[in-house]
Automatic annotation (TrEMBL):
Family matches, as InterPro entries: HI1420 (IPR014057), Lambda_DNA-bd_dom_sf (IPR010982)
Pfam family for this entry, one: dnstrm_HI1420
Signal sequence, start to end: none
Alphabetical list of Gene3D superfamilies matching this protein: lambda repressor-like DNA-binding domains
NCBIfam families in alphabetical order: dnstrm_HI1420
Sample GO molecular function, one term: DNA binding
Name of protein: Addiction module antidote protein
Amino acid sequence: MRTYRTLDQLIQERLSDPERRAQYLDIAVEDYVENGDEAELLLSIRQVVQADIGFAKLSETTGLSRESLYKTLSGKGNPKLKTLKEILSALGYSLYIKKQSA
């Protein structure tokens, strides 16, 4: 009998490698810059959290409740910049602003 996996399971398998997680986030950020879809970016960060440290550890590291983190990264969340910075920092990433070239 054939075993089927969900899309989430397939994504989690692919993101088990730290290098792939970094590439995935890079692409998600590029897509966000191009199309402005915040929900897509937040869901991508959620996938990385699940594949990397998980929500319990993220909650411990950031001091934010798991419920708050689930809501923030639900795709319907509207996180403050500080919250997003804390989440990315817990994953080993930094958030910075770069001046566009003219």
